[in-house]
Structures are given as C-alpha cells and as structure tokens.
Write a structure and sequence with these properties.
170 residues, five-stranded antiparallel sheet, alpha+beta, binds zinc ion, 4 helices
Length: 170
C-alpha cells in the first residue's frame, strides 16, 4: 500500500519538472534544504547529492554543482573537487547501504548523449549488482525500480546520520 500512496506523488514530481522547462530542477533543488520531499540527500558548498526520480537501479544518485552550467570548463577547480568528493561520498554511502557489486559513474553531456537536463551538468552514480542486466541502458527508457524512492532516501539518510560531522543539514 505504501508503494501506491507513493506513486502519485512521484508522478506529480516528475510532471511538474517537465511542465516547467524554464525552471531548472537542479537550480531549484540547490536552494532547498535536504529533505525526503525534494530528495536532496547531501549538500556541500558548491555541489549537492540528490536521488534520481527515474532510477535505473536502487540507489541511483546524482551529483550536481550548485551553479547552473552545462560546460565542465565553466567549473572551477574548487567546484570540480567538491563534485568529485560528493561522487566518492555517494559511492561510500551506497556501498554501506546496499552492498552493490559495482558502480557506473558518468555524465551525459548534451541531449544527444541522453541528458535529461542538458543545461545543468550532473554526474550519475548507479549501483550495480551481478546479474541485474548485461548492459546498463543508461539512455534507454527501461528501468527496474524494486524499491521506492522514499525507502531509498530513508536508508541512505540513516547511514549518513550515523556518521560524525557528515550528516545532511536538515
Ligand atoms: Zn540549473
């Protein structure tokens, strides 16, 4: 029943993002505190981590710089460093929470590469398990979502909360 209650909310989240293409999802989330509602899990000074509303697997996370840019060349060394630190932190969190067998980490640069939000660069962190699929359909519309986003957020938030001085700011 929880899944059914959760699904309409998720669809609203998705459609609202699509109906307002002029408002960048990452810019909007970058201003908000970490919460299960907006799926922002962890925040740094220049970058932040959030759950992907269209996860390819359980625990699919995204790391985006706070600043709106599509170009890696626009990012300062400081910004890039924090993005990479949050990518590393995301991997560590997922490792602890889900014990995956591997990870796919990467960026879809440009719409031709399948970027959903091409104007605001973001890194995908996708945990993988032996036998989940032969090849990750990163750009395809095929997704397997065995767990709800709420459950995923709660699980990762719990791992995060158990760490010293590294918790989310909510
Ligand atoms: Zn943006």
């Amino acid at each position: 029943m929880t899944e059914r209650l959760w699904a309409p909310w998720r669809m609203q989240y998705v459609s609202s993002a699509r109906e307002q293409p002029e408002e960048c999802l990452f810019c909007a989330r970058a201003k908000e505190p970490c919460s299960a509602e907006n799926m922002v899990l962890l925040r740094g000074k220049h970058a932040f981590v959030m759950l992907n509303a269209f996860p390819y697997t359980n625990g699919h996370l995204m790391v985006a710089p706070v600043r709106h840019t599509a170009d890696m060349n626009d990012l300062s060394d400081e910004e890039l460093l924090e993005v990479m630190r949050l990518v590393r932190e995301s991997v560590n969190l997922l490792q602890e929470a889900y014990r995956p067998d591997g990870f796919n980490i990467g960026v879809n640069l440009g719409r031709a590469a399948g970027a959903g939000i091409a104007d605001h660069i973001h890194w995908h962190i996708v945990p993988r398990w032996n036998g989940d699929t032969n090849f990750m359909p990163v750009l395809a519309d095929v997704r397997v979502i065995p767990d709800s986003l709420e459950n995923t957020y709660a699980k990762l938030h719990q791992v995060l909360s158990q760490r010293d001085g590294n918790g989310p700011d909510s």
